[in-house]
Design a protein that fits this description.
The protein is an all-alpha fold. The protein has helices at about 5-30, 40-55, 55-70, 75-90, 95-105, 115-125, 135-150, 160-185, 190-205, 210-225, 225-240, 245-260. Helix 6 (about 115-125) packs antiparallel against helix 7 and helix 11 runs antiparallel to helix 12.
Amino acid sequence: MCFSFEKLVKREKISLFTVFIAIIFIASCSSPNTEYKERGVDEIYNHAHGLLEKEEYTMAAKEFNEVDRQHPYSSWATKAQLMAAYSFFESQKYNDAIDNLDIFIQLHPGHEDIAYAYYLLAMCYYEQIPTIDRDQKFTRKAKQSLDELIKRYPKSKYSRDAKIKLDLVIDHLAGHEMEVGRYYQTAWNFLAAMNRFKHVVSHYETTSHAPEALYRLVEVYLSLGMLEEAQMVAAILNSNFQDSFWYKDAYDLLQEYSKNKNYKGFEFEEVTVDKSQQS
């Protein structure tokens, strides 16, 4: 095969010429409207605030971020960072809001609105909490953020609402554990179910799910033939939730068990849980 140096040079010239023409073409097609225009901080901030009032949240967020980009040392820049996060939150662009809030918290830990930043961060996770049969990643992050807000700023005006929401979040996490536990129970995987119900009793004992968790433990222990353990759990139900229908059902269950020497198990209502969330 004969190598031609002249052909190679010509080919390189053609390639370079093509690239050069392409660059000129792209530059000529650029719209003058996309050119950078420096504006006063008041103009940008007021425009962003006007968009916010019109509920054009995405555009408002971009304009608030523009304040920080064009005038990073302005007294309005810090406020604009927080307003951009709020605008993203209202537009349900929670990841963008979280990014803005993380930066704000890192750069301005002593700012007068820092408690609100922590509160808004928690709300970004709180608004994404799924149903109890799904993965609870956002629920756990909401709990962590709410805990941090309450711990850091217990006297802030956001603390009271944070405590209320924290109780709801904890109850939701307990509900998830119960849902998975019931799934294992219907599948006759009693040891796995037992661990879930015990977790609720140990970690979520103040939630509305605690009485049912104790009752389910009675069911599980009886299914495994562990009468003494079932009686001990029923005694706890009696001491703490005597007026609960869960205790009454547990008592009836023990009575039925004692009468049936050939007892092999109970019929359970079928529960469906996303199998990927059983860990």
